DNA sequence: ATTATACTTGTTTGCTACAAGCAATTAAAA
DNA sequence: TTTTAATTGCTTGTAGCAAACAAGTATAAT
Protein backbone atom coordinates (compact mmCIF):
# COMPACT_ATOMS: atom_id res chain seq x y z
CA UNK A 1 0.00 0.00 0.00
CA UNK A 2 3.03 2.19 -0.28
CA UNK A 3 1.92 5.46 -1.83
CA UNK A 4 3.94 8.34 -3.14
CA UNK A 5 3.99 11.18 -0.68
CA UNK A 6 1.19 13.57 -1.49
CA UNK A 7 2.42 16.65 0.31
CA UNK A 8 5.35 17.68 -1.83
CA UNK A 9 5.78 15.09 -4.55
CA UNK A 10 8.57 16.60 -6.58
CA UNK A 11 10.62 17.25 -3.52
CA UNK A 12 10.45 14.12 -1.49
CA UNK A 13 9.47 11.26 -3.76
CA UNK A 14 12.69 9.37 -4.16
CA UNK A 15 15.81 9.46 -2.12
CA UNK A 16 17.82 12.60 -2.85
CA UNK A 17 21.52 13.12 -2.50
CA UNK A 18 22.82 16.12 -0.61
CA UNK A 19 23.90 17.74 -3.84
CA UNK A 20 20.46 17.24 -5.33
CA UNK A 21 18.70 18.66 -2.30
CA UNK A 22 21.01 21.63 -2.33
CA UNK A 23 20.41 22.38 -5.98
CA UNK A 24 16.68 21.93 -5.48
CA UNK A 25 16.45 24.37 -2.62
CA UNK A 26 18.85 26.79 -4.27
CA UNK A 27 16.69 26.85 -7.37
CA UNK A 28 13.47 27.22 -5.43
CA UNK A 29 14.89 30.07 -3.41
CA UNK A 30 16.33 31.71 -6.48
CA UNK A 31 12.91 31.68 -8.11
CA UNK A 32 11.25 32.94 -4.97
CA UNK A 33 13.80 35.71 -4.53
CA UNK A 34 13.48 36.88 -8.12
CA UNK A 35 9.72 36.95 -7.83
CA UNK A 36 9.77 38.86 -4.56
CA UNK A 37 12.43 41.32 -5.67
CA UNK A 38 10.55 42.11 -8.86
CA UNK A 39 7.21 42.37 -7.12
CA UNK A 40 8.08 44.32 -4.00
CA UNK A 41 11.66 45.47 -4.31
CA UNK A 42 14.60 44.50 -2.18
CA UNK A 43 13.72 46.51 0.92
CA UNK A 44 10.45 44.69 1.44
CA UNK A 45 11.79 41.30 0.46
CA UNK A 46 12.61 39.31 3.58
CA UNK A 47 14.75 36.23 4.07
CA UNK A 48 11.78 34.73 5.85
CA UNK A 49 9.52 35.22 2.83
CA UNK A 50 12.13 33.79 0.47
CA UNK A 51 12.49 30.63 2.52
CA UNK A 52 8.80 30.13 3.02
CA UNK A 53 7.63 30.90 -0.50
CA UNK A 54 10.27 28.49 -1.74
CA UNK A 55 8.45 25.86 0.28
CA UNK A 56 10.91 25.63 3.15
CA UNK A 57 11.21 27.05 6.61
CA UNK A 58 11.47 30.62 7.78
CA UNK A 59 15.20 30.26 8.37
CA UNK A 60 16.64 28.45 5.37
CA UNK A 61 17.50 31.49 3.28
CA UNK A 62 19.34 33.04 6.17
CA UNK A 63 21.11 29.81 6.94
CA UNK A 64 22.17 29.27 3.35
CA UNK A 65 23.18 32.80 2.41
CA UNK A 66 24.01 34.21 5.84
CA UNK A 67 22.48 37.58 5.09
CA UNK A 68 20.27 39.50 2.71
CA UNK A 69 23.38 40.72 0.91
CA UNK A 70 24.49 37.12 0.60
CA UNK A 71 21.21 36.11 -0.99
CA UNK A 72 21.39 39.02 -3.41
CA UNK A 73 24.95 38.16 -4.37
CA UNK A 74 23.78 34.65 -5.13
CA UNK A 75 20.97 35.94 -7.35
CA UNK A 76 23.29 38.33 -9.19
CA UNK A 77 25.85 35.64 -9.81
CA UNK A 78 23.30 33.12 -10.98
CA UNK A 79 21.83 35.44 -13.61
CA UNK A 80 25.07 37.13 -14.64
CA UNK A 81 26.90 33.86 -15.15
CA UNK A 82 24.15 32.62 -17.39
CA UNK A 83 24.21 35.87 -19.35
CA UNK A 84 27.97 35.77 -19.79
CA UNK A 85 27.63 32.28 -21.24
CA UNK A 86 24.93 33.32 -23.68
CA UNK A 87 26.95 36.33 -24.76
CA UNK A 88 30.02 34.21 -25.31
CA UNK A 89 28.09 31.93 -27.66
CA UNK A 90 26.43 34.78 -29.53
CA UNK A 91 29.69 36.57 -30.24
CA UNK A 92 31.78 33.54 -31.09
CA UNK A 93 33.84 34.27 -34.18
CA UNK A 94 32.60 37.86 -34.23
CA UNK A 95 34.49 41.07 -33.62
CA UNK A 96 34.20 44.83 -33.97
CA UNK A 97 30.83 46.36 -34.61
CA UNK A 98 29.42 42.99 -35.58
CA UNK A 99 29.98 41.60 -32.08
CA UNK A 100 28.52 44.68 -30.45
CA UNK A 101 25.48 44.49 -32.66
CA UNK A 102 25.02 40.85 -31.74
CA UNK A 103 25.32 41.65 -28.05
CA UNK A 104 22.70 44.35 -28.22
CA UNK A 105 20.28 41.98 -29.89
CA UNK A 106 21.10 39.09 -27.57
CA UNK A 107 20.57 41.26 -24.54
CA UNK A 108 17.25 42.39 -25.90
CA UNK A 109 16.22 38.78 -26.47
CA UNK A 110 17.41 37.75 -23.03
CA UNK A 111 15.28 40.39 -21.38
CA UNK A 112 12.27 39.33 -23.41
CA UNK A 113 12.74 35.65 -22.68
CA UNK A 114 13.23 35.84 -18.91
CA UNK A 115 12.28 39.38 -17.99
CA UNK A 116 11.99 38.71 -14.28
CA UNK A 117 15.48 37.33 -13.90
CA UNK A 118 16.90 40.21 -15.87
CA UNK A 119 14.89 42.75 -13.95
CA UNK A 120 16.01 41.28 -10.65
CA UNK A 121 19.61 41.30 -11.82
CA UNK A 122 19.56 44.96 -12.70
CA UNK A 123 17.54 46.04 -9.71
CA UNK A 124 20.27 44.51 -7.60
CA UNK A 125 22.93 45.82 -9.91
CA UNK A 126 21.79 49.39 -9.57
CA UNK A 127 21.28 49.05 -5.86
CA UNK A 128 24.79 47.82 -5.38
CA UNK A 129 25.84 51.44 -5.82
CA UNK A 130 24.42 52.20 -2.41
CA UNK A 131 27.27 50.02 -1.31
CA UNK A 132 27.07 46.85 0.64
CA UNK A 133 30.69 45.95 0.12
CA UNK A 134 30.07 42.34 -0.88
CA UNK A 135 27.56 43.12 -3.57
CA UNK A 136 29.66 45.95 -4.95
CA UNK A 137 32.58 43.59 -5.41
CA UNK A 138 30.50 40.95 -7.15
CA UNK A 139 29.02 43.52 -9.49
CA UNK A 140 32.35 45.21 -10.11
CA UNK A 141 33.92 41.89 -11.08
CA UNK A 142 31.19 41.16 -13.62
CA UNK A 143 31.46 44.68 -14.99
CA UNK A 144 35.21 44.39 -15.44
CA UNK A 145 34.75 41.13 -17.30
CA UNK A 146 32.19 42.65 -19.65
CA UNK A 147 34.36 45.67 -20.26
CA UNK A 148 37.34 43.56 -21.16
CA UNK A 149 35.20 41.49 -23.55
CA UNK A 150 33.93 44.55 -25.42
CA UNK A 151 37.36 46.15 -25.50
CA UNK A 152 38.70 42.93 -26.93
CA UNK A 153 36.11 42.91 -29.74
CA UNK A 154 37.09 46.43 -30.70
CA UNK A 155 40.81 45.81 -30.66
CA UNK A 156 40.24 42.64 -32.68
CA UNK A 157 38.23 44.74 -35.11
CA UNK A 158 41.14 47.12 -35.36
CA UNK A 159 43.50 44.23 -35.90
CA UNK A 160 41.28 42.88 -38.67
CA UNK A 161 41.33 46.26 -40.36
CA UNK A 162 37.60 46.75 -39.82
CA UNK A 163 38.08 49.64 -37.43
CA UNK A 164 40.44 52.59 -37.51
CA UNK A 165 43.43 52.34 -35.18
CA UNK A 166 42.58 55.88 -34.05
CA UNK A 167 39.62 54.55 -32.07
CA UNK A 168 40.28 54.37 -28.36
CA UNK A 169 39.02 50.87 -27.75
CA UNK A 170 38.62 51.05 -24.00
CA UNK A 171 36.94 54.45 -23.93
CA UNK A 172 34.42 53.43 -26.59
CA UNK A 173 33.81 50.11 -24.87
CA UNK A 174 33.15 51.96 -21.65
CA UNK A 175 30.76 54.24 -23.45
CA UNK A 176 28.97 51.27 -24.92
CA UNK A 177 28.41 49.51 -21.60
CA UNK A 178 27.46 52.75 -19.98
CA UNK A 179 24.82 53.43 -22.62
CA UNK A 180 23.51 49.90 -22.26
CA UNK A 181 22.99 50.54 -18.58
CA UNK A 182 21.13 53.67 -19.38
CA UNK A 183 18.87 51.73 -21.69
CA UNK A 184 18.33 48.99 -19.14
CA UNK A 185 17.46 51.65 -16.61
CA UNK A 186 14.86 53.01 -18.96
CA UNK A 187 13.46 49.54 -19.54
CA UNK A 188 13.22 48.95 -15.80
CA UNK A 189 11.23 52.08 -15.08
CA UNK A 190 9.05 51.82 -18.17
CA UNK A 191 8.70 48.15 -19.04
CA UNK A 192 5.74 48.73 -21.29
CA UNK A 193 7.30 51.13 -23.77
CA UNK A 194 8.73 48.59 -26.18
CA UNK A 195 8.84 51.06 -29.02
CA UNK A 196 10.94 53.49 -27.01
CA UNK A 197 13.34 50.80 -25.90
CA UNK A 198 13.85 49.72 -29.48
CA UNK A 199 14.49 53.33 -30.43
CA UNK A 200 17.16 53.54 -27.78
CA UNK A 201 18.78 50.39 -29.06
CA UNK A 202 18.70 51.76 -32.58
CA UNK A 203 20.25 55.06 -31.57
CA UNK A 204 22.93 53.20 -29.66
CA UNK A 205 23.73 51.11 -32.73
CA UNK A 206 23.94 54.25 -34.82
CA UNK A 207 26.20 55.94 -32.29
CA UNK A 208 28.43 52.91 -31.96
CA UNK A 209 28.79 52.47 -35.70
CA UNK A 210 29.69 56.13 -35.94
CA UNK A 211 32.18 56.05 -33.05
CA UNK A 212 33.81 52.96 -34.52
CA UNK A 213 34.06 54.42 -38.01
CA UNK A 214 35.59 57.75 -37.01
CA UNK A 215 38.42 58.65 -39.35
CA UNK A 216 38.53 54.95 -40.12
CA UNK A 217 38.37 52.41 -42.92
CA UNK B 1 26.65 86.94 33.27
CA UNK B 2 24.23 85.71 30.73
CA UNK B 3 26.23 83.50 28.39
CA UNK B 4 25.30 82.09 25.02
CA UNK B 5 24.18 78.54 25.40
CA UNK B 6 27.17 76.27 24.90
CA UNK B 7 25.42 73.08 24.05
CA UNK B 8 23.91 73.95 20.68
CA UNK B 9 24.53 77.61 20.04
CA UNK B 10 23.31 77.95 16.51
CA UNK B 11 20.09 76.23 17.33
CA UNK B 12 18.78 77.78 20.51
CA UNK B 13 20.30 81.21 20.90
CA UNK B 14 17.42 83.47 20.05
CA UNK B 15 13.76 82.78 19.83
CA UNK B 16 12.92 80.98 16.62
CA UNK B 17 9.69 80.97 14.72
CA UNK B 18 8.09 77.69 13.84
CA UNK B 19 9.05 78.12 10.20
CA UNK B 20 12.66 78.79 11.16
CA UNK B 21 12.83 75.76 13.42
CA UNK B 22 11.35 73.63 10.71
CA UNK B 23 13.82 74.80 8.11
CA UNK B 24 16.65 74.36 10.58
CA UNK B 25 15.79 70.79 11.45
CA UNK B 26 14.97 69.96 7.83
CA UNK B 27 18.39 71.19 6.76
CA UNK B 28 20.19 69.39 9.54
CA UNK B 29 18.40 66.16 8.75
CA UNK B 30 19.00 66.59 5.05
CA UNK B 31 22.73 66.94 5.67
CA UNK B 32 22.73 63.99 8.04
CA UNK B 33 20.78 61.82 5.62
CA UNK B 34 23.05 62.66 2.69
CA UNK B 35 26.10 61.86 4.77
CA UNK B 36 24.70 58.57 6.02
CA UNK B 37 23.40 57.47 2.64
CA UNK B 38 26.72 58.17 0.95
CA UNK B 39 28.72 56.54 3.72
CA UNK B 40 26.71 53.42 4.44
CA UNK B 41 24.00 53.15 1.82
CA UNK B 42 20.27 53.32 2.32
CA UNK B 43 19.77 49.91 3.87
CA UNK B 44 22.02 50.66 6.83
CA UNK B 45 20.83 54.23 7.22
CA UNK B 46 18.25 54.44 9.97
CA UNK B 47 15.71 57.10 10.81
CA UNK B 48 17.08 57.00 14.33
CA UNK B 49 20.60 57.78 13.15
CA UNK B 50 19.38 60.60 10.93
CA UNK B 51 17.51 62.27 13.77
CA UNK B 52 20.31 61.87 16.26
CA UNK B 53 23.21 62.86 14.03
CA UNK B 54 21.22 65.95 13.08
CA UNK B 55 21.29 66.81 16.77
CA UNK B 56 17.73 65.86 17.60
CA UNK B 57 15.97 62.94 19.09
CA UNK B 58 15.71 59.37 17.96
CA UNK B 59 12.23 59.95 16.63
CA UNK B 60 12.22 63.24 14.76
CA UNK B 61 13.05 61.91 11.33
CA UNK B 62 10.27 59.37 11.58
CA UNK B 63 7.85 61.95 12.86
CA UNK B 64 8.71 64.47 10.13
CA UNK B 65 8.86 62.12 7.16
CA UNK B 66 6.61 59.31 8.38
CA UNK B 67 8.81 56.60 6.89
CA UNK B 68 12.17 55.88 5.40
CA UNK B 69 10.68 56.26 1.95
CA UNK B 70 9.33 59.64 3.02
CA UNK B 71 12.75 60.79 4.10
CA UNK B 72 14.28 59.62 0.85
CA UNK B 73 11.61 61.39 -1.19
CA UNK B 74 12.46 64.56 0.70
CA UNK B 75 16.15 64.18 -0.09
CA UNK B 76 15.48 63.49 -3.75
CA UNK B 77 13.20 66.47 -4.10
CA UNK B 78 15.56 68.81 -2.33
CA UNK B 79 18.49 67.98 -4.61
CA UNK B 80 16.51 67.59 -7.81
CA UNK B 81 14.69 70.88 -7.41
CA UNK B 82 17.97 72.67 -6.93
CA UNK B 83 19.40 70.98 -10.00
CA UNK B 84 16.41 71.86 -12.15
CA UNK B 85 16.86 75.51 -11.17
CA UNK B 86 20.55 75.48 -12.05
CA UNK B 87 19.83 73.83 -15.37
CA UNK B 88 17.16 76.36 -16.20
CA UNK B 89 19.63 79.19 -15.69
CA UNK B 90 22.41 77.51 -17.61
CA UNK B 91 20.28 76.86 -20.66
CA UNK B 92 18.43 80.17 -20.71
CA UNK B 93 18.34 81.47 -24.28
CA UNK B 94 19.98 78.31 -25.53
CA UNK B 95 18.56 75.58 -27.72
CA UNK B 96 19.58 72.56 -29.77
CA UNK B 97 22.98 71.06 -29.32
CA UNK B 98 24.17 74.19 -27.55
CA UNK B 99 21.72 73.64 -24.68
CA UNK B 100 22.62 69.98 -24.41
CA UNK B 101 26.30 70.81 -24.34
CA UNK B 102 25.67 73.34 -21.58
CA UNK B 103 23.70 70.79 -19.58
CA UNK B 104 26.42 68.20 -19.79
CA UNK B 105 28.95 70.70 -18.50
CA UNK B 106 26.65 72.06 -15.80
CA UNK B 107 25.93 68.57 -14.56
CA UNK B 108 29.61 67.83 -14.42
CA UNK B 109 30.24 71.00 -12.42
CA UNK B 110 27.33 70.24 -10.11
CA UNK B 111 28.71 66.85 -9.24
CA UNK B 112 32.14 68.33 -8.61
CA UNK B 113 30.82 71.11 -6.40
CA UNK B 114 28.54 69.07 -4.14
CA UNK B 115 29.42 65.47 -4.88
CA UNK B 116 27.72 64.06 -1.80
CA UNK B 117 24.34 65.56 -2.57
CA UNK B 118 24.55 64.38 -6.15
CA UNK B 119 25.70 60.94 -5.10
CA UNK B 120 22.86 60.64 -2.63
CA UNK B 121 20.38 61.78 -5.25
CA UNK B 122 21.42 59.14 -7.73
CA UNK B 123 21.83 56.38 -5.21
CA UNK B 124 18.20 57.00 -4.32
CA UNK B 125 17.28 57.49 -7.94
CA UNK B 126 18.65 54.13 -8.97
CA UNK B 127 17.16 52.42 -5.97
CA UNK B 128 13.75 53.75 -6.78
CA UNK B 129 13.67 51.14 -9.54
CA UNK B 130 13.24 48.46 -6.90
CA UNK B 131 9.96 50.19 -6.44
CA UNK B 132 8.65 51.82 -3.35
CA UNK B 133 5.69 53.42 -5.03
CA UNK B 134 6.15 56.86 -3.50
CA UNK B 135 9.76 57.21 -4.51
CA UNK B 136 9.10 55.88 -7.97
CA UNK B 137 6.49 58.54 -8.55
CA UNK B 138 8.73 61.35 -7.36
CA UNK B 139 11.55 60.17 -9.55
CA UNK B 140 9.29 59.58 -12.53
CA UNK B 141 7.93 63.12 -12.28
CA UNK B 142 11.41 64.63 -12.28
CA UNK B 143 12.40 62.42 -15.16
CA UNK B 144 9.40 63.47 -17.22
CA UNK B 145 10.23 67.10 -16.59
CA UNK B 146 13.80 66.65 -17.71
CA UNK B 147 12.72 64.76 -20.79
CA UNK B 148 10.31 67.47 -21.81
CA UNK B 149 13.01 70.11 -21.33
CA UNK B 150 15.49 68.31 -23.56
CA UNK B 151 12.85 67.51 -26.16
CA UNK B 152 11.93 71.19 -26.16
CA UNK B 153 15.51 72.26 -26.82
CA UNK B 154 15.71 69.96 -29.79
CA UNK B 155 12.40 71.03 -31.30
CA UNK B 156 13.43 74.65 -30.77
CA UNK B 157 16.68 73.84 -32.52
CA UNK B 158 14.69 72.40 -35.40
CA UNK B 159 12.50 75.48 -35.43
CA UNK B 160 15.55 77.69 -35.55
CA UNK B 161 16.86 75.73 -38.51
CA UNK B 162 19.87 74.48 -36.54
CA UNK B 163 18.71 70.87 -36.61
CA UNK B 164 17.18 68.79 -39.37
CA UNK B 165 13.41 68.26 -39.11
CA UNK B 166 14.11 64.57 -39.74
CA UNK B 167 15.47 64.21 -36.22
CA UNK B 168 13.03 62.53 -33.86
CA UNK B 169 13.27 64.99 -31.00
CA UNK B 170 11.78 62.83 -28.29
CA UNK B 171 13.69 59.68 -29.16
CA UNK B 172 17.00 61.51 -29.23
CA UNK B 173 16.17 63.34 -26.01
CA UNK B 174 15.41 60.01 -24.41
CA UNK B 175 18.70 58.66 -25.65
CA UNK B 176 20.51 61.65 -24.22
CA UNK B 177 19.05 61.33 -20.73
CA UNK B 178 19.54 57.61 -20.83
CA UNK B 179 23.22 58.02 -21.67
CA UNK B 180 23.61 60.60 -18.96
CA UNK B 181 22.31 58.07 -16.47
CA UNK B 182 24.78 55.56 -17.70
CA UNK B 183 27.58 58.04 -17.15
CA UNK B 184 26.33 58.94 -13.71
CA UNK B 185 26.20 55.27 -12.89
CA UNK B 186 29.80 54.92 -13.94
CA UNK B 187 30.76 57.93 -11.84
CA UNK B 188 29.01 56.46 -8.83
CA UNK B 189 30.82 53.15 -8.95
CA UNK B 190 34.18 54.63 -9.88
CA UNK B 191 34.35 58.11 -8.39
CA UNK B 192 38.10 58.30 -8.78
CA UNK B 193 38.37 57.85 -12.52
CA UNK B 194 37.98 61.46 -13.61
CA UNK B 195 39.70 60.84 -16.91
CA UNK B 196 37.25 58.08 -17.84
CA UNK B 197 34.25 60.16 -16.85
CA UNK B 198 35.44 62.99 -19.04
CA UNK B 199 35.91 60.54 -21.88
CA UNK B 200 32.34 59.40 -21.50
CA UNK B 201 31.11 62.98 -21.57
CA UNK B 202 33.17 63.62 -24.69
CA UNK B 203 31.84 60.56 -26.45
CA UNK B 204 28.32 61.55 -25.52
CA UNK B 205 28.85 65.01 -26.96
CA UNK B 206 30.19 63.49 -30.14
CA UNK B 207 27.25 61.11 -30.39
CA UNK B 208 24.72 63.83 -29.70
CA UNK B 209 26.22 66.21 -32.25
CA UNK B 210 26.12 63.38 -34.74
CA UNK B 211 22.54 62.33 -33.96
CA UNK B 212 21.40 65.93 -34.18
CA UNK B 213 23.14 66.54 -37.50
CA UNK B 214 21.84 63.44 -39.26
CA UNK B 215 20.73 64.27 -42.80
CA UNK B 216 20.42 67.79 -41.48
CA UNK B 217 21.58 71.38 -42.02
C1' DA C 1 -5.55 81.20 27.78
C1' DT C 2 -6.12 78.38 24.05
C1' DT C 3 -4.68 76.32 20.07
C1' DA C 4 -1.32 74.75 16.89
C1' DT C 5 3.04 73.06 15.81
C1' DA C 6 7.79 71.20 16.67
C1' DC C 7 9.74 67.74 18.96
C1' DT C 8 10.31 63.64 22.38
C1' DT C 9 9.30 59.30 24.57
C1' DG C 10 6.95 54.73 25.06
C1' DT C 11 5.41 50.50 22.84
C1' DT C 12 4.25 47.14 19.32
C1' DT C 13 5.52 44.42 15.65
C1' DG C 14 8.48 42.19 12.59
C1' DC C 15 13.02 41.04 10.63
C1' DT C 16 17.92 39.89 10.73
C1' DA C 17 21.38 37.38 12.51
C1' DC C 18 22.94 33.78 15.16
C1' DA C 19 22.91 29.62 18.13
C1' DA C 20 21.34 25.22 19.01
C1' DG C 21 19.19 21.19 17.58
C1' DC C 22 17.01 17.57 14.46
C1' DA C 23 17.00 14.56 10.42
C1' DA C 24 18.70 12.78 6.45
C1' DT C 25 22.87 11.37 3.71
C1' DT C 26 27.49 9.93 3.37
C1' DA C 27 31.81 7.76 4.96
C1' DA C 28 34.23 4.65 7.74
C1' DA C 29 34.72 0.68 10.73
C1' DA C 30 33.45 -3.76 12.19
C1' DT D 1 26.50 -6.00 5.06
C1' DT D 2 25.66 -3.97 9.25
C1' DT D 3 26.81 -0.59 12.52
C1' DT D 4 28.65 3.67 13.84
C1' DA D 5 30.40 8.26 13.26
C1' DA D 6 30.63 12.50 10.75
C1' DT D 7 28.80 15.71 7.58
C1' DT D 8 25.39 18.41 5.68
C1' DG D 9 20.65 20.26 4.81
C1' DC D 10 17.20 22.16 7.19
C1' DT D 11 14.30 23.82 11.27
C1' DT D 12 13.37 26.10 15.60
C1' DG D 13 14.45 29.37 19.42
C1' DT D 14 16.01 33.82 20.72
C1' DA D 15 18.39 38.45 21.21
C1' DG D 16 18.79 42.83 19.42
C1' DC D 17 17.27 46.46 16.66
C1' DA D 18 14.63 49.43 13.66
C1' DA D 19 10.13 51.07 11.63
C1' DA D 20 5.88 52.74 12.61
C1' DC D 21 2.65 54.65 15.41
C1' DA D 22 0.49 56.49 19.73
C1' DA D 23 0.77 59.45 23.37
C1' DG D 24 2.96 63.06 25.65
C1' DT D 25 5.87 67.56 26.43
C1' DA D 26 7.47 72.06 25.13
C1' DT D 27 7.50 76.04 22.42
C1' DA D 28 5.38 79.46 19.34
C1' DA D 29 1.10 81.55 17.39
C1' DT D 30 -3.58 83.55 18.09
Describe the structure.
- Two copies of one chain form a homodimer.
- With 217 residues, chain A is mainly α.
- The first copy, chain A, has ten helices and no strands.
- The longest helix of chain A is centred in the N-terminal third of the chain and has 27 residues, at 18-44.
- The model of chain A is unreliable at 1-13 (pLDDT under 50).
- Chains A and B meet through helix 2, helix 7, helix 8, helix 9 and helix 10 of A and helix 2, helix 7, helix 8, helix 9 and helix 10 of B.
- The structure holds a DNA duplex (30 and 30 nucleotides).
Write the layout of secondary structure elements.
2 copies of one chain form a homodimer.
Chain A: H1 9-12, H2 18-44, H3 47-53, H4 60-65, H5 68-90, H6 96-113, H7 115-127, H8 133-159, H9 169-189, H10 194-213
Helix pairs in contact in A: 2-3, 2-7, 5-6, 5-7, 5-8, 6-7, 6-8, 6-10, 8-9, 9-10
The first copy, chain A, binds a DNA duplex (30 and 30 nucleotides) through helix 2, helix 3 and helix 4.
Distance separating the two termini of chain A = 78 Å
* Mean pLDDT across residues of chain A: 89
Task: Tell me about the largest β-sheet of chain A.
Answer: none
**How large, in whole angstroms, is the Cα Rg of chain A?**
21 Å
Shape of chain A: elongated
Count of DSSP strands of chain A: 0
Determine the oligomeric state from the structure: homodimer
Order of helices and strands of chain A: HHHHHHHHHH
| Number of H- or I-type helical stretches of chain A | 10
Q: What portion of the residues of chain A fall into strands of 2 or more residues?
A: under 5%
How helical, in percent, are the residues of chain A? over 70%
Given helix and strand content, the structural type of chain A is mainly alpha
Unreliable sequence segments of chain A: 1-13
- Largest interface (C-beta under 8 Å): A-B, 45 and 44 residues
